[in-house]
Structures are given as C-alpha cells and as structure tokens.
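TA notes, week 10

Several of you asked for a full example with nothing omitted. So below is the full record: structure tokens for the whole chain, then the designed sequence directly under it. When grading your own attempts, check the secondary structure regions first.
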C-alpha cells in the first residue's frame, strides 16, 4: 500500500485577492485525474487492461479525502503514467507532484502532512 498526500498548492506569485488566484491553484487530486486519463501511449490509445488499471486509481481517488491510498500495482500504474506525462507548462509544483507520486511510501511523509496543515485543508484557496 502506498499513500500520497493530496496537496493543494497555490501559485505563490499570484496574490490571494486576485481573480486569477483560484484558477492557478494546483490540486493533486485534479493532477492525478489528468495524468491517469491520458493513455500511456497517446498514439495507440488505452487498451482494456490500461482502462481497468486506470479506473482502479480513479476509484481510489473518489474514496480519498486528504490521502490517496493505492495498492502497490495501482501505484505502479500511476507512477508509470506520471513519468510518461508530457506537461503543458513548467512549474516547481509539478516536480513536487512527481516526487510525491514516485517516492510514495506506506505512510505519508511528515513534511507533506506539516505543509498541508500549515496551508489548511486547501479547500478555501
């Protein structure tokens, strides 16, 4: 079992009172959805096995609140898709997301828990 803190991180360059603030918040749950919905091989598309494996990750995401819990095989699938993803922009938060996925362990790191606690639950961002 691997666990990933579902962080919500704003763009530090945009003040909270600006209209574009909310649109520039990066939520791990949404990034997982985007990553997992993209086929490993966009040229070929997703086969039935990939569809089933991806749906298991999406189902786990639906059940998650602050932490995404994945069986090892499902985590391996998310990790593979995360590493294969072609990102549309360059941002340090993407590197943080990739690290959180690829370095996931049995327990969420204390750093991830503390960062999220300091930011609140992220829902008011």
């Amino acid at each position: 079992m691997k666990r990933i803190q579902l962080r919500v991180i704003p763009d530090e360059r945009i003040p909270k009172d600006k209209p574009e603030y909310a649109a520039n918040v990066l939520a791990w749950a949404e990034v997982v959805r985007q990553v997992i919905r993209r086929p490993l091989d966009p040229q070929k598309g997703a086969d039935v096995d990939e569809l089933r494996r991806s749906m298991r990750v999406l189902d786990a995401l639906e059940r998650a609140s602050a932490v995404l819990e994945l069986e090892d095989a499902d985590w391996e699938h998310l990790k593979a898709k995360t590493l294969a993803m072609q990102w549309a922009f360059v941002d340090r938060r993407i590197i943080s997301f990739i690290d959180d996925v690829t370095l996931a362990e049995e327990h969420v790191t204390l750093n991830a828990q503390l960062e999220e606690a300091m930011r609140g639950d992220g829902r008011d961002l």
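The mean pLDDT is 90. Use that as a sanity check on your answer.
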